[in-house]
Amino acid sequence: MATPVIVDIVTYFYPVGNTSAVHLTRNLPRAQTAQILLLGCGDIRNIVFTVYMDQDSGKQIPPAVFDFLSDTAQQVSFDPQVAWFVLTLSARNILLLTLALDDTDGGRDPLMWNIYYHLYLDNESMKLLNDQATKLYEMAITMQSWTNGKYGQQFRFCDEGTLSKVRNIWYTYRIVNFKGKEREQHLQRSTAAMQRATSSREYRMSDASFPLNGIRAAAPAGICAAQDAPELARHYWEHGSTDKDGLYLRKPENINPTFVTDTSTLHYGTDPLLGFHLATAYAPLTKESPLRGRDKGRFKLVEVARQQFRAWIASFRQYPRQQLTMRFSASDAVAFSYALQQRRLAVTSSPAGFYRDSYHSKPLVLDSEDYLGSGGAPTSFTVIDTSNLIDHIGALNLLVASSPLLENTYMSSLYTQSLVKSQETQTAYIDSLLCGHFPSISTLLGLIPVQYWTNISSTSMMDDLMLDSGFGSAGGNKQMHIRLTWKQPFSRQTSHSLASGWLHFDEIGLARMLHEVYLNMFRNEDMHKLFAAMNQHTVTNNSLLRYNRRSFALFLRFVRNRVICNWTKVMDRLLAFIEQDSTLLMNLNYIQELYLCLHLYNVHSVDTFAPAFARTSTSLGAAGLKGWRNIPPVLCVTIEVPREKLGLVTRIKPTEIGSPILHCVVQSSPSSPSGRWQNIFSAIQLSFGTISTSGERFSDTFRVHIAEDKLRWNGSSPLLATFMAPTWMLLLEPKTATIAFGIQSTPASTSVFMKLLGLDLNLYRTNLGNERNVFFTKFSPNLAEFTPLRALSDGNYNNSVASNAAARILITATTDTDTGRIASLVGRLEGLSGDMKKELRNGCRVETVQTSPFRFTETLGSKPITLDFPAPVKALEHKTRIARKSFYIEVEAPLADATSWKSFPSFIYPTFLWSGTPSVWNSSYLNLDRLPVIDAAKKSELQWLRPHASGMFNTRERAQRNKSVVAGSKTDVRMAFKESLFTMFMSFTALQRQQTRLFSLNHTTAGGVHVLIFISNLRMDLTNHTVVLDAAVLLLTHEIVSRIGSFLDALSKLNICHIKVDSEELNLWKQALPALVERCRTWEHQADCEYLRESSIPLSMENGQRVVCSCGNGRFPPSFILGVPQWSTVSKYFVRAAVSPCFETPFSEQLFEFGTLHGCWACGKEKTNNGRALLSCGKCHQAKYCSADCQRADWTLHKSHCRAPGPHNNLTQHHNK
């Protein structure tokens, strides 16, 4: 809806995911109801994996849409899996999930695997598919028949259109029933579809290609899959099956119909294994471990994937049906999000003037009973997952559409994921993501990118960075995998409306800031920048565009809801900046479309949209447009492009077309009395079909109706392009002005089409007076009315103070008008209570203390007031202004940047109270008992763990580790914290140190041992592709020490690893431990929980005082800790915790550079264990290692680019200079 429309002749079908399943509720505490919206998620993996992980966790996933939706406390929700081929995906997904529910004993799991993943099916699988599709087809005759049927309460449709189209797809799965000509046509369709897929793969995946996704799916043991994963991907495409022998099935009659589409091509990278967590194939799991495989050959990856499929499906089958509801919508992700916004703001099924997507003429109308009246379908969500849509539609388009649907709680999360390498570095990626200064624009959006501000992630990026450097050239197009979690600011949590989180702005500063976004959004039109830095990324980024002027208008609609200022003044200044700008080559050619979109979305209206403006050019009795009585200020223009004009595009080889952007142009005739002018419209609607009309032409009653041609580019119908245009422009030359349909000029499109189409790249042109091919209507085709998007708020800011509030808090953003960035945030406390005014007047002491990057505490005498900023601010740089006569206090602090975390190094896993429940912000919740258990005794099979754990350290820290050892220099607290974690993992597995499972945090100069950490086992953290220590933790308070003296004496005789910490690191541990406990709890907080009583997490930072609440003390599985004396007596003081590696994000410091790594290429050490110089690879003499074990661990990765002759397993002494 908000993205440019392209020539979509070549489109891909993604029936299965290409990244491992994610735990959708990973940021929700135990026993919380989840309202989940999935945008862009094509298959079922995330759904069933989430159900598996949440089983027995107390979480409930309430009703939703295939992209979860629901507000019922004990139901699950899914909402639109939106892509071009969501219909096919919905049909596949519902079919499989209903099969799972019917298969009560799991006996059909192998057949279900075949149906969902194999390209060719055996007879038994084909018959099961046919029978289930027939059953579903017969149930789905009407919405009522489906709703009243066997599956109607659990699987629901948002609208009649989706149900009808999904039913039609189920019909195509009934191939066993096809006879005669129908069967012959099906075989032709299937054969053609498979030929397209194999040809595409042969073209895209050359013999030199080295697919990386299988290695990523096997992380943290990814290097172990470097050979197996690509070979199995090739096997899948050669056999059409994951079975060892599937060639006998490669016949046209055995092609799986769920992989067949008429207009799209099965993606060349399709691989069933990619959606699973393949590390369990390489990690040595204990005999009792969940998800333990047994196959030792290459097909062990297939075995573990099948095993996980069975386990996930079994959990889905066992989940109470009344607690899981899914709703499906076949529509564009952005369009569906705006439809939900409309529904949330007002109970209406109106289409809001937009279609399901930009490539069809079907309106999006949520007309099911769930969205009418009090139907109960959710319109706000605790979880919104957007897959990697951000790569395809742009971050601003995605966030502006979806973030207003995020529920206003600390717990709510919006997830984005990027796979496309659009920039050379991660820093460049984040700097360009929001079309402006990242900290400023994220603050303006009212969103907190958690990993950016904490500089910490639960997931290691080391595997991706190493793979990109080591294998990128072999794989063709490189990838850049970045996951971000977006939260809402603390200052927004007090409001429960869709419109909340107001920011005061000065008008000129805000206008400058918005203009910078405009310039960056359309930087492809800046020829100076294009030619100044011409490289592959520049050409690609200037050809694959994500925004048009409608995008910018929708962004401004969102911003208007977020700010308090004179909006008219902002817009006047912004439009002046835009009109006067000369850096964008086509700026003025798009200016009328910008004005138009601003008017349509109620952002701002210039004078030309006043009703009387256009009507001055009309008169009764005149012909054509000029005779339209009471002509509206905006008209819909539909141009019919004859089929023969499309041949210049359709005759080009599909591999050469690319993704050219389409637009319409209206310009003056050669003899125009108004002079030369041209206006381009990129916000167009595309469809194929035949037009019929009704009503009187050139009047409000005239309508255009489109009967669509499903074959589109492959059919015979004309192309129909529709766009909105300002009426006054059309009236300049209503008969003679030129209207054209063509391709937008970009570096890529120009190289392909200029020789064929000429410099203007037009496919078809005519004049406005051509009534056979040009139509003017009040409303868009197939729409009986136009309902504009409702404003997110009424624009009225409530300036009152709640009766129980100590003060009213106003937040102002101060902008730098030269750079268009937020320079500082000012928090103003006013409307103080009477007692506080009195204190202030009497000269009480006012103390300002910054307690976190977001929060200040203002203390007036003895009365504290909490001041929360909507974004982090720099520490120790604030100013406080006190107005004792005017009764207000202001705190001003500079907006933080990517390196500001260094001022708050303990802000790693912040934990907050929300409605009495602790909520962990930056650490995934884990159902530990569902995670595979690693046999730590099998060192030879754990060599991948050392480089993985070393991935905690960035380039600077790797160098600093060596200096610290040599010179005894002090390290920063985060590095010390990671060093302590590294010690635990290496000691528990004995990979570098003596094996032990007992650890202490020992502050030798301040009380000795403060924390005891006893490790039960090491588990695979599937969600985050890492490992986790399942531990029992005891914080030694004065009270507890007095009770367990004999136990502490007994411990002194055991092998305990005493980790030395200083005061800073001990404080960091105290801040982190509540999160490490909370993230794995299986118990409920009690009514008298200390967190509630003290309103503080952690409870105290003082030595000898309680840090973590006592609600979880002693709650352990049987036989959790063995070999510890008096455990049965003292376990009641311990609490279970999940201790994971702590990985940095790449936004502030370099993590790893493959070609210039100076330390051990496996673990980062700069010396051998005995302090000598590193050893070098005897083959290439470039790779360096601290030991033979590290070389063996790294060999799978290193061998692909180890070039010099000689045996790879020889180590020679390497002397660093």
Q: What do these coordinates show?
A:
The protein is built from 38 helices and 40 strands. The protein folds into 6 domains: 12-486, no CATH class; 498-605, no CATH class; 628-777, no CATH class; 808-870 and 872-904, Immunoglobulin-like (Sandwich), CATH 2.60.40; 919-1144, no CATH class; 1156-1204, no CATH class. It is α+β, with helices and mostly antiparallel strands. Helix content is 31%, strand content 17%. The radius of gyration is 31 Å and the shape is globular. GO terms for molecular function: DNA-binding transcription factor activity, RNA polymerase II-specific; zinc ion binding. One of its GO terms (cellular component) is nucleus. Keywords: Metal-binding, Zinc, Zinc-finger.
**Helix tally?**
38
Q: Give the helix/strand class.
A: alpha+beta
| Arithmetic mean of pLDDT | 88
Residue share in helix: 25-40%
Low-confidence stretches: 63-87, 472-476, 494-500, 799-804, 1205-1217
List the helices and strands and how they pair.
Layout: E1 12-13, E2 36-38, H1 45-54, H2 86-102, H3 109-117, H4 123-139, H5 143-147, E3 155-157, H6 160-172, H7 180-204, H8 213-217, H9 228-239, E4 265-266, H10 300-318, E5 326-328, H11 333-345, E6 383-385, H12 389-393, H13 395-402, E7 413-420, H14 426-433, H15 438-445, E8 448-449, H16 450-454, E9 456-457, H17 462-471, E10 479-487, E11 503-505, H18 507-521, H19 527-532, H20 536-541, H21 549-562, E12 563-564, H22 567-580, H23 591-600, H24 611-615, E13 634-641, H25 647-650, H26 654-657, E14 662-667, E15 678-681, E16 685-694, E17 703-708, E18 719-726, H27 727-730, E19 738-743, H28 747-757, E20 762-767, E21 774-777, E22 808-816, E23 821-830, H29 834-841, E24 846-850, E25 855-860, E26 863-868, E27 879-883, E28 888-894, E29 911-914, E30 917-920, E31 933-934, H30 945-950, H31 955-967, H32 973-989, E32 998-1003, E33 1008-1021, E34 1026-1035, H33 1038-1041, H34 1045-1051, E35 1056-1060, H35 1063-1078, H36 1090-1094, H37 1127-1130, E36 1135-1139, E37 1143-1144, E38 1175-1177, E39 1184-1185, H38 1188-1198, E40 1211-1213
Parallel strand pairs: 1-4, 2-6, 3-5, 6-7, 11-12, 11-22, 32-35
Antiparallel strand pairs: 7-10, 8-10, 9-37, 13-18, 13-21, 14-15, 14-19, 16-17, 16-18, 19-20, 22-23, 23-28, 24-25, 25-26, 27-28, 29-30, 31-33, 32-33, 33-34, 34-36, 38-39, 38-40
